[in-house]
Specification:
The complex is a heterodimer.
Chain A: H1 12-15, H2 25-29, H3 32-38, H4 49-58, H5 77-80, H6 82-92, E1 122-131, H7 144-159, E2 167-171, H8 177-185, H9 196-199, E3 212-216, E4 221-225, E5 231-238, H10 242-262, E6 269-270, E7 274-275, E8 288-294, H11 304-311, E9 313-316, E10 329-334, H12 342-364
Chain B: H1 2-10, H2 34-39, E1 41-42, H3 49-52, H4 62-66, H5 69-75, E2 78-79, H6 86-95, H7 114-117, H8 119-129, E3 159-168, H9 181-195, E4 204-208, H10 214-222, H11 233-236, E5 249-253, E6 258-262, E7 268-275, H12 279-299, E8 306-307, E9 311-312, E10 325-331, H13 341-347, E11 350-353, E12 366-371, H14 379-401
Antiparallel strand pairs in B: 1-2, 3-7, 3-10, 4-5, 5-6, 6-7, 8-9, 10-12, 11-12
Classes of the chains: A alpha+beta, B alpha+beta.
Protein name (chain B): Creatine kinase U-type, mitochondrial
Keywords (chain B): ATP-binding, Kinase, Membrane, Mitochondrion, Mitochondrion inner membrane, Nucleotide-binding, Transferase, Transit peptide
Domain Phosphagen kinase N-terminal (chain B): 44-131
């Protein structure tokens, strides 16, 4: 983007997108007035309103979920285009107000229980989040030079870790066939995004330059570099010990953050929207804590959706977002990201999954579960 | 002429309009801000060129063959007056390392000025793609006089259909990779306005992609007229599918022999076609329709992008010059199995495609045969090449049917 802004030569009505058939958060919020007000603004790095909304214009609606329809190109996007982002954040995050403050709590000791989810039902446990490195623009906007600088800094930080976090980095563009096979078998490898939600936002540019995967030798702590966010941090293991997964998650994250801070590139965070990430849906904790759990009976129960909603949980297929469940095994995770802390969100997963497994057992015995259905959390 | 001047002075882009040395439409003396255009507006950058240079080691496209670190360093700080940058121009080539069957171009133009501002890269790319054509020294001939075509009626036992297509861009508006929604809508308005003025056998109707009914959509599909949102990453990575289907549409005449696509890969794609082998009539209608549309837009003060060295200016450098692909669907079951088939096509300056168009396979020995060249030869020359070539192929097929041998023709001379 440059100083010479061609866009100003036409009137607002002439540039305003046709959103009449659209169903996403951006389309619901963007009026001609807001567009007119923000269209001649740019963040310091040159990200414009049209850049912010392109993915939402190009993708009218997702069949199953209400997509956000906009992205940030840098930390400042959330400020410069406040008038657009604030109502979207409110819609997406349960009425979160521009004056609200977000609480961050990565002290794993504050989690109660979580080490005893029944492994006969809970096949695996996982916690992921994202982090953005301060001082750089975000994946929709980064140039190759910036992306490479982010990779270099991230690799420096990650390869300096030791103990349970000792590991290795695999750059996408130079991994061997053998390494690639192994990463696929481990379910670690991420692919070039095919979802138009991401490609229309420019996140797949220059693939696979400066993208890569780092994981510890134990294969329980994994970092994706330069996919949808600067960093996606994942802690996982087989079985139901979510407590251990969360401990490793918190400890690992804090170690990494310290190293970035030493290089004067801490993580993007502020007390209003917490950790700043590319997609507004991931603001706050950016945390998705979940399990793969067998619920063949409960999942066909009439009240399944209701139960999930009350527990503030969501279901996905075992392939992740936009996939279907296979053999009654579901991916169950927290629905919230902003307005509650990491500990609180993982607590909801731990408590909720524990309850649902008990419900499943009841249903196996042919008993009713109505009395167990919780009140709205 | 006066109206063209008015258009240019009142043009919303009043800075850096490329010098217009067009086909008699504007005087050669009208050189506006030429130095400013070539120097390009400066771009704010945080990293040195060496840190930004793309990794092209596994790439095989024309852009990758000619983009050196030195050329990148020289051009990366520039932008066209519209703000289009080198990184944007080459993005599609960086994102798409290579096509399995053909060497793709690997870059696009975001506006007419791209061809000037990024000439140091585009000229060698053009030279490679167009068999040695040098834009700095050569001139491209335009000739839309269909009466010059000889023997333009094919044997219809072999030729099933004939078709000629090209593209045209509206001067003063950015091209599909870079245009804003308002610019794209302006292209639609200008072109649809002009098409509404066509008469007689060219009278027709416009079908906007956003407004067409299901019934209209089905009819257009049955007629093989409907174009879809691009799925090829060659196009999507260049940003051509943005805001789909806003301001996209199809116009065709009532007889369904003259068709215009609006805002797909170019501002306009113009197609003349009919069943059977009367290529001369197809080309005659093509030229007549094109000239009439040009006259109609000029009445309103607009014109097509054209220059003496590059001919008609389109989004992809591969379509410069005439932008013309003249072709037939022709049955060549015996010839296509002959090992000399490819060589014969090469020497005749023809290419084969499947009957679904580029990147498809032939079905039942029926091929799409069309001209290879676009730039450095006129429309008349290229269509004559197709006419002569297809007639030769049919002769070969007939000889093979009779059990006679065929000869590989000598290669048609190319410019150095």
């Amino acid at each position: 983007m440059t100083e010479t802004c061609q866009y100003l030569n036409f009137k607002t009505e002439e540039e305003f997108p046709d959103l009449s058939k659209h169903n996403n958060h951006m389309a619901k919020v963007l009026t001609k007035e807001i567009y007119g007000k923000l269209r001649d603004k740019q963040t310091p790095s040159g990200f414009t309103l049209d850049d912010v909304i392109q993915t939402g214009v190009d993708n009218p609606g997702h069949p199953f979920i209400m997509t956000v329809g906009c992205v940030a190109g840098d930390e400042e996007s959330y400020e410069v285009f406040k008038e657009l982002f604030d109502p979207i954040i409110s819609d997406r995050h349960g009425g979160y107000k521009p004056t609200d403050k977000h609480k961050t709590d990565l002290n794993f000791e504050n989690l109660k229980g979580g080490d005893d989810l029944d492994p006969n039902y809970v096949l695996s446990s996982r916690v992921r989040t994202g982090r953005s490195v301060k001082g750089y623009t975000l994946p929709p906007h980064t140039s190759r030079g910036e992306r490479r600088a982010i990779e270099k800094l991230s690799v420096e930080a990650l390869t300096s870790l030791d103990g349970e976090f000792k590991g290795k980095y695999y750059p996408l563009k130079s991994m061997t066939d053998a390494e690639q096979e192994q990463l696929i078998s481990d379910h670690f490898l991420f692919d070039k995004p095919v979802s138009p939600l991401l490609t229309c936002a420019g996140m797949a540019r220059d693939w696979p330059d400066a993208r890569g995967i780092w994981h510890n030798d134990n294969k329980t702590f994994l970092v994706w570099v330069n996919e949808e966010d600067h960093l996606r941090v994942i802690s996982m293991q087989k079985g139901g010990n979510m407590r251990e997964v969360f401990r490793r998650f918190c400890v690992g994250l804090q170690k990494i953050e310290e190293i970035f801070k030493k290089h004067n590139h801490g993580f993007m965070w502020n007390e209003h929207i917490g950790y700043v990430l590319t997609c507004p849906s991931n603001l706050g904790t950016g945390l998705r804590g979940g399990v793969h759990v067998k619920l063949p009976k409960l999942s066909t129960h009439a009240k399944f959706e209701e139960i999930l909603t009350r527990l503030r949980l969501q279901k996905r297929g075992t392939g992740g977002v936009d996939t279907a469940s296979v053999g009654g095994v579901f991916d169950i995770s927290n629905a919230d990201r902003l307005g509650s802390s990491e500990v609180q969100q993982v607590q909801l997963v731990v408590d909720g999954v524990k309850l649902m497994v008990e419900m499943e057992k009841k249903l196996e015995k042919g008993e009713a579960i109505d009395s167990m259905i919780p009140a709205q959390k | 002429m006066a109206s063209s001047f008015t258009r240019l002075f009142s043009s919303k882009r009043n800075v850096g309009i490329l010098s217009l040395v067009g086909a008699g439409s504007v005087t050669a003396g009208f050189l506006l801000h030429r130095d400013h255009v070539t120097a390009g507006a400066p771009v704010r950058r945080m990293y040195p060129a060496s840190a930004e240079f793309p990794d092209l080691r596994k790439h095989n496209n024309c852009m990758a063959s000619h983009l050196t670190p030195a050329v990148y360093a020289k051009l990366c700080d520039r932008a066209t007056p519209n703000g289009y940058t080198l990184d944007q121009a080459i993005q599609t080539g960086v994102d798409n390392p290579g096509h399995p069957f053909i060497k793709t171009v690997g870059m696009v133009a975001g506006d007419e000025e791209s061809y000037e501002v990024f000439a140091e890269l585009l000229n060698p790319v053009i030279k490679e793609r167009h068999n040695g054509y040098d834009p700095t020294t050569m001139k491209h001939p335009t000739d839309l006089d269909a009466s010059k075509i000889q023997s333009g009626q094919f044997d219809e036992r072999y030729v099933l259909s004939s078709r000629v297509r090209t593209g045209r861009s509206i001067r003063g508006l950015s091209l599909p990779p870079a245009c804003t929604r308002a610019e794209r809508r302006e292209v639609e308005r200008v072109v649809v306005d002009a098409l509404a003025g066509l008469k007689a056998d060219l009278t027709g109707k416009y079908y906007s992609l956003t407004l067409m009914t299901e019934k209209e959509q089905q009819q257009l599909i049955d007629d093989h007229f409907l174009f879809d949102k691009p799925v090829s990453p060659l196009l999507t990575c260049a940003g051509m599918a943005r805001d789909w289907p806003d301001a996209r549409g199809i116009w065709h005449n009532n007889e369904k022999t003259f068709l215009v696509w609006i805002n797909e890969e170019d501002h306009t794609r113009v197609i003349s076609m009919e069943k059977g082998g009367n290529m001369k009539r197809v080309f005659e209608r093509f030229c007549r329709g094109l000239k009439e549309v040009e006259r109609l837009i000029q009445e309103k003060g607009w014109e097509f992008m054209w220059s003496e060295s590059l001919g008609y200016i389109l989004t992809c450098p591969s379509n410069l010059g005439t932008g013309l692909r003249a072709g037939v669907h022709v049955k060549l079951p015996l010839l296509s199995k002959d090992p000399r088939f490819s060589k014969i096509l090469d020497n005749l300056r023809l290419q084969k495609r499947g009957t679904g168009g580029v990147d498809t396979a032939a079905v039942g020995g029926t091929f799409d045969i069309s001209n290879l060249d676009r730039l450095g030869h006129s429309e008349v020359q290229l269509v004559q090449t197709v006419v002569d070539g297809v007639n030769y192929l049919i002769e070969c097929e007939k000889r093979l049917e009779r059990g006679q041998d065929i000869k590989v023709p000598p290669p048609i001379r190319q410019f150095k």
